[in-house]
Amino acid sequence: MIRNILFSAALCVLGALCVYSQTPQATPPPPAAPRSSKFPTPVDQTLPNGLRVIVIERTESPLISAQLLIKNGGEVDAPELAGLADMTANLLTKGTQTRDATKIAQEIESLGGSLDSGARWDSSFASVNVMSSKIQPAMEILADVVRHPTFKSEEVERLRQQYLDNFTLAVGDPGSLARMVAARVVFGDSPYGHPVSGTSESLTRITGADITKMHSRYYRPDNAILVIGGDINAKDGLALATKYFGDWQKPATPLPAISAATENATAKTGRIVVIDKPDAGQAAVYLARTGINRQDPDFFRGIVSNSVLSGYSGRLNQEIRIKRGLSYGAGSTLDARRDVGPFVASAQTKNESGAQVADLLLGEIGRLSSAPPADVELTPRKAVLVGSFSRNLETVNGLVGQVGSLALYGLGLDEINRYINNVQAIGTADIQKFAGARLDAKTSNIIIVGNAKAFLPELQKKYPNVEVISVNDLDLNSALLKKKQATGE
Amino acid sequence: MVRLSLRLILGACLLMTTPLVASTQTRMPQLKFTDRTLANGLRVLTVEDHSSPTVAIQVWYHVGSKDDPNQRSGFAHLFEHIMFKSTKNMKSEMMDRLTEDVGGFNNAFTNDDVTVYFEVVPSNYLETLIWAEADRLSGLNVDDANFKSERDVVKEEYRQSILAPPYGRAFYLLQSKSFQEHPYKRPTIGSIEDLDAASLKDVQEFHSTYYRPDNATLVVVGDFDPKQLDGWIDKYFTPIAKPSRPLPRVTVKEPPRKSEIRVTEFGHNDLPAVGFTFLTAKLSDPDADALQVANAILTAGESSRLYHSLVYTQQIAAEVLSDENALEDAGLFIMGAILSEGKKVEDAEKSMLAEIKKLQDAPVSAAELEKAKNQLVTDQLRERETGNGKAMALGQAAVLLGDPARVNTDLARLQAVTAADIQRVMKKYFTDSNRLVLYYLPQTTKKEGQ
To answer: Which of A201, A211, A301, A342 can bridge A434 by disulfide, Cβ–Cβ 3.0-4.6 Å?
Structure first.
């Protein structure tokens, strides 16, 4: 049968003769033999000042992306100064010894380029994306903002107000508020617990001196990685790096120790936390728990397990959207960081179905170990991972981001060419093992931000220990989650 | 996530072409495409590109939310979702089996003027996808349970994009208040009541009215053998007959505005917002290029005029945005600001109007013009990094601009925009009587009687 289909297809290749003689067939034609792809090999060098430089050539588009990574981000914020690393990184582009904020924006935008900076967990970054013909002036600006920022007080004040406004906007959105609450529930007062861009209280406390100190402590060549990718070869990339970063002096002081892993509260029974926001147009339902760190030997078991749950045809979306029409989309992420990061599964739904969706999220996490995917289900979910990984490497930003992440976490850069095999090696037993040991439903937390009146009675029937906090009493500054005056009632 | 209406509220933003400009030093890769039309009217555009072993397939249907049936706002978009349900030869969600399960992906979007279905798959699956797209153009076979469940998904999409985000309804209002007569006054997502009124019968009617080969354009970009691809297209698409009925088209013309329209609404936002719209030039109008450049000068990047004035210098706004939304039958320029804490909408309104006046009173400098053009080119280069992005650019040139060659020639049109052109379009369209102003204020500030 297969041969026949191939044969008729081959006939058509010969010309238009068969054009009007066929009707659409009732089963899809099968695929031809697959073609393999290989990704570019990163070239990895270290300058005498300790700056690690990685170049990846990809010439399909006349674009270059360059990213300077600092190996610390929001996790080194002092608890009362949440948002410090992010504000520091953001302020890089707001003035240097020779350019003010306006000049920086005008110069980079005149090149048609974009210049971004900020902090995430485990890293801070400044990056440019520009046409390859404009890379020289763009790199000069990139080096200037990383090495010579001035942190003028008027710029600090301006950015502080923007961060405060953004925090207000984030609290007004059920999804982003649920993410911030989930981080506190999972990580408590430990480093990944606070909002990476701060809270209204912590942002108010940050001083110019804190920012200058953060910069001098962490922004040094031996704590940095420069990744250049796109329409440039290794030799030219290294020459660019040397020209603009070669004379960046390494301080005599020792590198700050990478913050020690903070032990997460171990295997506590999961909490059910409701943030009552009566004006919420939808309920954001989150399941959150600890996951894995990036160096964990179970990393590939973890990401394949996540792929079984997440993505359009993953189990969560199958159950919540496709079968029941309860949400526009349900999915999950396993965010592997330097220390153990979070696993989060989520969906937004009408307020009335908040409890039902919480149940479905918990049920699917449990089912991953009680009914692990057989090959017929698992093979497509692995294909999803491999496909999206490959497509991500088609853009220069994706390529630089992927390689930068491997470098940041001390992994071999050749992993981009081993990724597919690593994913394919995972089997049903691996998923069962990972889900049972690392994604236990009993120790997972549920966070719902929404109009509690619509779903609380149903939720309480099943979970008597629901904690309800009014959005007006919510305090994102500590693991308690409740403002002091509200805790004594 | 999937089956989304990209920038649903703003309409055709993603699709509206950002024309290209050839910077002196940059090679802008030309898309070498083939263009043919089958006897049944299906237009086929292809670009052979072997840079990765994948292929992007798109089918553009020339039907959008402006074609929603009476009392059925949101129907074109709901229908887009239904196109992933069962056909004569495919079970529900089989498209996902043929794409996602083999390492590809699929998606679709609806805007005011078009509905676009797209897939990217490993290139050895190309024939399968050509078959599948032909199959769902041939007809749907959806049952009531599937229809209702998908309608619930779309209602959740409405809640997620309009009701949940603090400013979702503000964008909805900006579009719906901007048009008096033209069906563009119905935002693509529609309304819950109209979605509830939709039935399976509407689905069959809509498919037979608009989903026909002479209303479709197939775009394929990627790793294929052209002869083989042509053979598959002929084999699976030519048997689909072209109906003899004429295709209904919207002919309503939006009348010019006679005086300023002012709207005040209250929402669950903590920071007030102000929005403006102006009726501008439709997509095919020669003014569309100058309006695109003007839009970039106003809000592209931190050195743009509105950002620099309102966010940076005066610190009145937390965010500013603008968009030149050039649609087939009309253009709608949207501009807005979310205020910073403690600031007044009246002051933001005054400052934004002052920036418009500056563009009317004096020409932009050569450097500022060049900057805007460089930004637009680089954006375009980034969009065209992938096969799917290239196909999108080709599809919009063919279907919305009426000429696929514009994918390569819009570069020169944009390059030709002068400072005088920008000043001229700013004076022509940004008048007092052509202005709509929306104040979107926190419910907590609502006074008795408002």
So the answer is: A301
Please indicate, yes or no, whether residues A385 and A289 belong to a single structural domain of this protein.
yes
B166 in Cβ contact with A168 (< 8 Å): no
Residue B102, chain A, CB below 8 Å: the answer is: yes
Alpha-carbon distance B135 to nearest alpha carbon in chain A (angstroms): 7
Taking Cα atoms as reference points, which of A238, A256, A246 lies closest to residue A143?
A246
A313 shares contact with chain B (CB less than 8 Å): yes
Q: Look up the pTM and report it.
A: 0.91
Residues 6 or more apart whose Cβ sits within 8 Å of residue A271: A185, A445, A446, A465, A467
Residue A15 has a pLDDT of 27
Name chain A contacts of B235, Cβ cutoff 8 Å.
9, 12, 18-19, 22
pLDDT in tens, A104-158: 999 999 999 999 999 999 999 999 999 999 999 999 999 999 999 999 999 999 9
The token duo for B24 is 């002196």
pLDDT digits (tens, 9 = 90+) for A433-453: 999 999 999 999 999 999 999
The structural domain count of chain A equals 2
Residue A391 belongs to domain spanning = 272-487
- ipTM of this model? 0.90
Mean pLDDT to the nearest integer, B398-410: 95
Torsion of CA A50, A54, A55, A56, to 10 degrees: 180
Residues of chain A with Cβ-Cβ distance to B228 below 8 Å are 9, 12-13
**Around Cβ B262, how many Cβ atoms within 10 Å?**
11
Residues 6+ positions from B35 with CB-CB distance below 8 Å:
B43, B44, B45, B398, B404
The reply to whether A374 touches chain B by the CB within 8 Å rule is: no
Distance from CA of A479 to the nearest CA of B (A): 25
CB-nearest partner of A321 from B153, B269, B304: B153
Nearest to B156 by CA among A182, A324, A288: A324
Interface test with A, best of B135, B160, B161 (most A CBs within 10 A): B160
How far is Cα B287 from Cα A35, in angstroms, rounded to an integer? 46
DSSP 3-state helix, strand, coil percentages of chain B (rounded to 5)? 45, 20, 35
Q: Kindly list the domain boundaries of chain B, sorted by start residue.
A: 34-237, 261-445
Structural fold of domain B34-237? Cytochrome Bc1 Complex; Chain A, domain 1 (3.30.830)
Separation in Å, CA of A332 to nearest CA in chain B? 12
Nearest CB to B318; choose among A111, A162, A348: A162
What CATH number has the domain spanning B261-445?
A: 3.30.830.10
Residue B19 corresponds to which amino acid?
P
In a domain, A65, yes or no: yes
Q: Which residues 110-129 of B have a C-beta within 8 angstroms of A?
A: 120, 122-125, 127-128
- Cα separations in angstroms, A281 against A180, A346, A357, B158, B244: 18, 16, 16, 10, 46
